[in-house]
Amino acid sequence: MTADQHAKGSVSYLMEMGALKRAKRSGWWIAGVKDPETIAEHSFRTAVIGSVLAMMEGADPAKVALLCTFHDTQETRVGDIPWIGRRYLKSAKNEDVTADQVAEAHPAVASGIQAIVEEYENGDSPEVVIAHDADKLECMIQGLEYLEQGYSNAQEWVDSTRAKLKTPSAIALANAAQGMSSIEWQRVYLG
Questions:
Q1: Domain extent at residue 43
Q2: What is the pLDDT of residues 23-33, one digit of tens each?
């Protein structure tokens, strides 16, 4: 493949990632949320949460942010399948979907992104554990926000994701989040 073909393949991947800005997180529809967050919105806050958790846990925040950024990128191809739907489907592993997504990209890009997804899916380092906690904590916080908006069925997501948290820092942040409103952060700064 030529350098131009690799560049086009890499840009193709970047353009595909733009679909995440439009794709909704479908599990929230089960809870009755009419206009749920997008996959990109979820991934952004997951990366920020992951960085914060890594700082609290003494892990590498940049590594955790990277793992979180790429954790749902396969959903451009397979969609956001809610947990209840996954029991009925046998889909490709995220690592296989990623390999297809980056097949035409620059070799360094392809191998780098594949390594990130492989580590997120199969690793057990502190950074991977923290990245998984960040994903769950983001879902829990989003659920709390939906509860405030009147979507009472979001409580199940809050409870189920909170129960899966592993790190002391994620549990501490979950405890703090459950006692706050979504705009309480303003009070901290406004006095």
A1: 3-181
A2: 999 889 888 99
